[in-house]
Design brief:
alpha/beta, nine-stranded mixed beta sheet, 9 strands, 22% strand, 39% helix, TIM Barrel
Length: 243
């Protein structure tokens, strides 16, 4: 089984527990205004590679995983566009004793998510925006299927973390966070992870000849992030601020 991979990053510490290797797969159905990985949809840096070859590279850092409880994370783009490849890669990793994590937007067919749930230990599920019209404006697609898949992940994953990007002026309104918190709480999940917008990705757009829609947006301050976390907690969830 071959997949289209645009990056493999070793010694990652923010993509699941412990020290991890994150494999980034090309292709994405969304065009998020703040996308940090435009390589995923540009296709300019992707290479076709067999799952066993990727796994061999991942296993080179087994000692770090064993010492820290880390493992393999599959990200993108949207990795579930290559669900068979993800299944083979994660099944191989689990057979080797590694913890496996999937990062997804949920903007895929239910069958793709259902297949991968069988071989991952943790799903990190991004909720871009709960309002359908805003989701369409900010990502290029509606969110009906996303919300259905969120419910599937909440009921079928071994462990799930729902994450919301905090992009000032776009996703950080108090009423939007309240709506997202209510949705996650309704799924029986007790925490919401807040991921602050960063600007370190902007150079990629220039290199790829693409327009960065959020070029003028400044990252939220630590004080603002704590205020957002307090808003989430007022609605009955634990708030986690991502690193």
């Amino acid at each position: 089984m071959k997949g289209r991979v645009f990056d493999v990053q070793r010694c990652c510490v923010h993509d699941g527990p412990g020290i991890r290797t994150t494999v980034f797969l090309a292709g994405c159905p969304l065009r998020c205004a703040w996308c940090h990985n435009p390589e995923a949809f540009s296709g300019q840096t992707a290479r076709s590679v067999e799952a066993r070859e990727v796994l061999r590279e991942v296993l080179e850092d087994r000692a770090f995983y064993e010492a820290t409880g880390g493992g393999l994370t599959v990200s993108g783009g949207e990795p579930l566009l290559q669900a068979p490849f993800v299944v083979e890669l994660c099944a191989g990793a689990r057979a080797a004793g590694l913890h496996t994590c999937l990062q997804t937007s949920g903007a895929v067919d239910e069958a793709a998510l259902r297949a991968v749930l069988e071989v991952v230990d943790l799903v990190q599920f991004d909720l871009k925006h709960l309002d359908p019209a805003r989701h369409l404006a900010l990502t290029g697609r509606g969110n009906e299927g996303v919300l259905a898949n969120a419910a599937l992940a909440a009921s079928g994953a071994r462990q799930v973390e729902f994450r919301v990007p905090i992009v000032p002026g776009l996703t950080d309104a108090a009423e939007d966070l309240a709506r997202t918190a209510a949705f996650v709480r309704g799924l029986g999940v007790g925490a919401l992870h807040l991921v602050p917008y960063q600007r370190t990705y902007l150079g990629k757009y220039a290199q790829l000849g693409l327009l960065a829609r959020c070029e003028q947006v400044e990252p939220p301050s630590p004080a603002a992030m704590h205020a957002h976390a307090a808003e989430v907690e007022r609605h009955g969830l634990a708030a986690r601020i991502a690193g």
